[in-house]
Amino acid sequence: MDQYIGIDVSKQTLQTFDGEKDGTFPNEPNLEALDRFIQDKKRKNKKDPVLIFEPTGAYSSYLRNYCIRKNLKAEIVNPSQSAYFAKATGNRSKTDKVDARMLYGYHLILTGKICKVPFQSEQANRIGAYINSFSLLVTSETRIKNHIHAAKQEGSAVSDLLTLLETHLAQIQEMKEEILQQALVFIQADPALEEAYENLCSIPGIGKISAIHLLHTFLKYPAANRNQLTALAGLDPMHRESGTSLHQRLKISKRGNPLLRRVLYCAAMCSVQHNTEWKRRYESFIARGKPRQVALIAIMRKMLLLSYVVYQEKRQYEHREDTVEINILIT
Questions:
Q1: Is 212 exposed, middle or buried (0-12, 13-18, 19+ CB in 10 A)?
Q2: Which residues, 6+ apart, have CB-to-CB distance to 261 below 8 Å?
């Protein structure tokens, strides 16, 4: 039986529980104190432990890198799953010790699941950094635009203030272009990445930003299948059939990457309006009685899966007049 260790990650410390006792270790770059504890566990149990923790953004990066460096298996638990698990086990308090014990107990539902060493792609990390910075600027740009519009409507802002805000807005737009160019330079510096990027851009409706987001996803999850990719984008259907709730409208989960879902939505909206190929597919869904939003989501999913085929097969998209269905191409 595997030896599990639950670890609650915070900014400064790692709180552990190994089934017997609690421990606290500094969350530092090399995790030297935690490593001594892990090595001692390995000597006693004659096997490598499996670490269970939540991805807490930058704070869990040291622990993830440690697992990769030491070739240690880990189960990185989705925070929403761990939250539901904590409620199911009756946890009413939330402290570092309670969370570490809860994560240790999570191993009970891992029966039959093969835990693996975490995977990390330096290329995906670099592209992801560009994406996150670009997204931050887009959010700031939208808020400032809305603020300027409201101030003009209310007449509450003086001209000097509006000029200052508009200058700042122009700076944000310049930064967006600079970040996009830096991302493209990084991609074009690697022949394999450049080829993959160009192949994705060959798909009607997929532009620069969409292609960068898709490339990042495929690099980060190289072993994902069709269903997993759909879930990563939050486009997987959420079934609700319980009691009298037998005829509720089917919805998507929206539990995946919101940035990826957003760029796919924009790409699909643009494509069904300006590209005859995607417009024909969209209208075929409408002709079958699908609501417009459902038809648009179907186009988003087809775009995602078709992009994955093009990426995997390392070829450009080929338009076919006879229109073989995309879901046949990706089987």
A1: buried
A2: 233, 234, 235, 254, 300
* Element holding 51 (H helix, E strand): strand 50-53
Give a yes or no: residue 246 inside a domain.
Answer: no
Based on the structure, what is the number of domains in the chain? 3
- DSSP string computed for 244-290: TBSSPPPEE---S-HHHHHHHHHHHHHHHHH-HHHHHHHHHHHHTT-
d(CA 106, CA 84): 11
The amino acid occupying position 210 is: S
Q: Considering the domain boundaries, does residue 82 fall inside one?
A: yes
Mean pLDDT of the chain: 89
Q: Tokens at residue 160, please? A: 């000097």
**Can you say whether the dihedral through the CA atoms of 235, 241, 245, 249 is positive or negative?**
positive
Residues 105 and 129 in one domain: no
Burial of 44 per CB tally in 10 Å (0-12, 13-18, 19+): exposed
pLDDT tens column, 97-152: 999 999 999 998 887 788 899 988 999 999 999 999 999 999 999 999 999 999 88
Cβ atoms of 7 and 55 closer than 8 Å? no
Token representation of residue 149: 């519009």
| Residue where a domain terminates, one of 109, 138, 157 | 109
Same domain (yes/no): 214, 318: yes
Structure tokens at 129: 């950094």
**Where does residue 307 rank: exposed (0-12), middle (13-18), buried (19+ CB within 10 A)?**
buried
Average the pLDDT over 7-13 and give the result: 95
244 pLDDT more than 70: no
DSSP 8-state secondary structure symbol assigned to residue 69: H
Q: Which of 99-108, 236-245, 274-283, 312-321 has the lowest mean pLDDT?
A: 236-245
For residue 18, give its domain range.
Answer: 4-109
Quick one: 92 and 137 in the same domain? Answer: no
